[in-house]
Amino acid sequence: MKINFKVMPLLAVICLTMACEQTKEREVASTEFTLDYEKFVLDNGLEVILHVDKSDPIVAVATMMHVGSNREKPGRTGFAHFFEHMSFNDSENVPVGANRKMIPEWGGSRNGGTWSDGTVYYEVVPKDAFEKILWIDSDRFGYMINTVTEAALEREKQVVKNEKRQRVDNAPYGYTDEIIRKNLYPEGHPYSWTVIGSLPDLQAATLEDVKEFYNEYYGASNASLVIAGDIDIEETKALVERWFGEIPSGPEVAPMSPMPVTLEETKSLYFKDNFAKLPELRMVYPTVEAYNKDEFVLEVLGQLLSGSKKSPLYRSVVEEGKLAPNVSSYNSSNELAGEFVFRVRANEGVALDDVKAAIESGLADFETNGFTDTQLQRIKAELETQLYYGVATVLNKAFQLVQDNEFGKDPGFITERSKIYQSITREDVMRVYQQYIKGKNYVMTSVIPQNTPELAISGAEEATVWQEEVTAMKANEQVGQGEEAEYEKTPSKYDRSEPDFGEPPLFRMPAVWTGSMSNGMNTLGIVNQELPLVSFSLSIPGGHMLDSMEKSGMAYLMADLMNEGTANRTAAELEEAIGLLGSGIFVSAGAEEITISGSCLSRNFEATLALVEEMLLQPRWDPADFDRLKQELKTSLKGREANPTAIASLNFTKLLYGDQHIMSVPTSGTLETVEGIGLEDIKALYSKLSPQGAAMKVVGDIDQAEVEAALSSLNSNWTVDAAQMNSYAIPENSTKQQLYFIDVPGAKQSVIYIGSMALAASDPMAPKLRFANEVLGGGSSGRLFQTLRIQKGYTYGASSGVPSRQTVAPFRVVTSVRANATQASLDIIREMLQDYGPGFTDNEVELTKNKVVKQNTRAYESLNAKLGILTNIDKYGKSLDYINQEQDALMSMNLEEFKSVIAQYINEAEMTYLVVGDKATQWEEVAKLGLPVTELDIFGQPIE
């Protein structure tokens, strides 16, 4: 998995505690944050940071290796990321496959990520598996290299190549990063190639390369380890010494100094993208390395230029020019250098020369008029709230601690970061603009649809990238588990066999309070006083279910328009009012409801709710805003036509629900249905929004009395009778199986959807079906993932399950496989589905029970997860202790019940198959499945 912490808001992973005791007086706010941690260093040089958080019986572990793609050699690009994948395979003292399979079975989650500067491995587990994680982590870290085999090497090559195909080769605008890096950085610069690298380089990797990379960079002295959660400090120190203390220090890895770049000229390049439907412009300026103080000022500059409706780029590109739905500008700094990016994905057919001119106009406006103190104050208020939200989970705490230790040389750097943000002045912002942007050279890319080169910037030079040709499966792509390596175990003074589980953690479903308002609105809440934060969600029945078939997208447009100001405030004024509170409010439309969701500091809850009421009861209904949002939606719908995964998802839903059900049409509608929607349609739909059956769900540092007091005005002013919902019949599963194929010429992967209609989330059988699916498609331990990715190397991921809806929803299997493995993957999935029920065993019953019960210890940690509990209670009629009841039901299920559920809902003989891929190479292959094949266009219409 490739991740980039640098582009996450404040890394979205900040660990902090209040320096002073939290107070219930809402007007008091802290401006000082300090980290609560203890750091020590083992004799081998491993730096260890511990953080205690006993709010949930779970532990997060993160190991940061100070090696990313910036340490690679030319000709071996992508190797750091590839090695991350290799590390998850085998090690000397852990059973084969345990890393990916056993951790989920213990109720944990695990993954890794690589970016330009580093690689991180991380897990979250129930506390009883804590020592088991130290066993697995330390073995992967210090005892894996002897177990690497040629077979494992070749298998993982296919997995990583599949990831590249899925994320880059088969995705619109996927090659843009490669084009920018090649032209922004000089040849040989550590950032001149992409993190995921090239397919030829990956294919060329050898066992000797793997061992050399490990021996050079995977020493204990080149890493940091963070453990956060329900731990005892002294016990944990002893465990860390036992499991990690013998790992070799490794050779000294010389630190890399910043390597900023300067462009001698502006470079303009264009690329004809096979998957893009809309033209996209990026302008990238070189800036500074991470932890340079200018990095933080540049982040604020990005927000001032495009981050609000009052920003100059939004006005020039979106409002005045009507050239695109939005515009973004942001700084992304890494260890050696940074980039400031302007990015616009324009409306269909818009010439990028016009977009560039609009950006230049907006920047000229900024140079002349600058920004107001209020705009800067708003950004700082939002940063304060983001700081608090960064402590929502123990994993996020671990991420920030480990990154700031390894790259900032201070686990507690958040204190300094907070001070820097609050001290930024007008003069700082204008200085970095002059220093890094105004009059400086940059790299500009025009990525345009294949057949519209005229939309590119005038005079741009065509960029070239290496692209894979889809061919029949080659001999070196036929991979498997292979033989285990033969080696002598590394000696240890400790017993490195699997430790026992600790004391089983006790999961307690949080206490839920409920109430009702006189206007018919329900209230539900969970008090959580860990942080001075509140997350809330007001759900109003309707959504897409109130749309008409011929004007689908009305609810979607209406929700968008409700975000665009109120009768008393323009969109920009509303946005500013919300931002000055450090709050967030957003109206959205789902399949079955309109939702107003938000977050705020607890001291600002009442003021935030006042703005929610204003947005709900006094919409602005500005015709100009409506026209702009309608065009934005049409642009988005056009862009969706380029995404093979979206094509597959939308058409699979249409095939199962049939042409007469509203669910067969996307919530956002289609180009045809949206075209006919007018502002009067939106107003008519809005009149149906009723508090009858609506629910305000609140989680955080606030109690029921405070919530209902803040809602008193809305309760008095919102009185609308309940609307009549549209009713649709659910089509029965066809007894005749059919395979459908949609051609995306040149696709490097095939997207596969397989399934049939199942049940609604309110159905009493829904939890049992979820339990019955765990062994088949429940994450990385499921058979689909284990077979298609781990054993065969055909895919990057595969899963199965049922979406949660009030309407009956389908059971579906979903994966994207490399194109030349399409037919083989279909055969495997079909056989797996046919054999699943008959082959289910008592061992798998017990495995499922243990896995689900343990998962619950960490599944409801965050504020949003707790909001999910309240949604399940309100929307699906579940009891106030439904999680406990479902656990009890699971523990009483026997083998025959599992088999019965599988036979009823996971019946391959009733399933529809859909493949989206390259017809030229895959049509004859999919026909080998033996099912009737019908070709559809990308809109689901049969092709004769």
From TrEMBL:
Signal peptide: none annotated. The keyword Aminoacyl-tRNA synthetase does not apply. Residues 205-383, 679-851 form the Peptidase M16 C-terminal domain. Residues 48-172, 533-651 form the Peptidase M16 N-terminal domain. Residues 487-499 have a biased composition (Basic and acidic residues). Keywords: Hydrolase, Metalloprotease, Protease, Zinc. Pfam families: Peptidase_M16, Peptidase_M16_C. One of its GO terms (molecular function) is metal ion binding. This is Peptidase M16. It comes from Aureitalea marina.
